[in-house]
Automatic annotation (TrEMBL):
Superkingdom of this protein's organism: Bacteria
Name assigned to this protein: Substrate-binding domain-containing protein
InterPro entries assigned: PBP_domain, Phosphate_ABC_transporter
PANTHER family for this protein: PERIPLASMIC PHOSPHATE BINDING COMPONENT OF PHOSPHATE ABC TRANSPORTER, PHOSPHATE-BINDING PROTEIN PSTS
Keywords from the UniProt entry: Signal
Domain PBP stretches: 20-207
UniProt xrefs under Pfam families: PBP_like_2 (PF12849)
Length: 273
């Protein structure tokens, strides 16, 4: 009898383990901490489901993983391409993140003008003393030309559409790399998606006196989920839908994002911008 009871317990635990298999949400570093926060909140309400948000492999990497059935969900910071849609992928916009310009946490500068920012990233200005700061060389950290935040800056920041970025700069390959490089290098400046967590490690600048969360701020990137049209598990779908709930949207707002819901979240293909 004891053996029968024990076998029943083992079978129940094995069944629970299968039902509780984690959902991986892979892809961009943009908004990664927010997706992790959403995952933790979802798991709190649904203890049988664990959301895993691994380090960045980029939007393209996330899309490739989902397309190759290596992960059920991707997090992306760019629209789907027509070829990706044609392959059976769909997207839903979840939230917008303002693009932030940030410096080493010890740099005593609070705000830059558009002109000053262009001077830094073009290489025309190379010392913080020229901008009212300390006598310290400016160390530019940029992203690759295909980066989503850079694309948004080029579309929205005055003077950035045809700005040739200085070659005297470090190229960060992920959002985390950019933040860590700026955080660890005195005099460094970088850019990436804004979040409240970001302000804990670097000095987020105002641009023309506007903080990224202020109304009228200049640019933002849209973060979306992507999945295969013919292959979305029920638990993964529940997590996607959770992002549209009032609780999830309140959490996103508290973390510095602008949640997207209803007709603005396009679940049929190209990400709404």
């Amino acid at each position: 009898m004891k053996a029968l009871v024990m076998a029943s317990i083992v079978l129940s635990l094995a069944t629970a383990a299968v039902e509780a298999r984690p959902i991986q949400v892979v892809g961009t570093g943009d908004g990664m901490e927010l997706v992790r926060a959403l995952g933790a909140a979802f798991t709190s309400d649904n203890p049988d489901t664990v959301i895993l948000v691994p380090p960045s492999i980029g939007s393209g990497g996330g899309i490739a993983a989902v397309g190759g059935r290596k992960a059920p969900l991707a997090r992306v910071a760019r629209p789907l391409k027509p070829t990706e849609e044609a392959s059976g992928l769909v997207a839903r916009a979840m939230f917008r993140l303002p693009s932030a310009i940030y410096t080493h946490p010890d740099l005593a500068i609070e705000s830059l003008s558009h002109e000053q920012l262009i001077g830094i990233y073009s290489g025309a200005v190379n010392n913080w003393a020229a901008l009212g700061g300390p006598d310290l060389r400016i160390k530019v950290v940029r992203r690759e030309d295909t980066d989503s935040t850079l694309a948004v800056l080029r579309r929205s920041m005055p003077g950035w559409d045809d700005l040739e970025l200085t070659t005297r700069s470090k190229i960060a390959v992920t959002t985390q790399d950019s933040v860590e490089s700026v955080k660890s290098t005195l005099g460094a400046i970088g850019f990436g998606p804004f979040s409240r967590v970001l302000e804990e490690s670097v000095n987020v600048l105002k641009i023309e006196g506007l903080h990224p969360t202020d109304q009228g701020y200049f640019s933002a990137v849209t973060v979306s989920y992507v999945w295969r049209r013919d292959d979305l598990r029920d638990d993964a779908k529940a997590f996607v839908d959770y992002g549209q709930s009032p609780k999830a949207q309140a959490l996103l707002s508290a973390l510095g994002a602008v949640p997207i819901a209803g007709d603005d979240a396009d679940a049929t293909g190209t990400v709404a911008q």
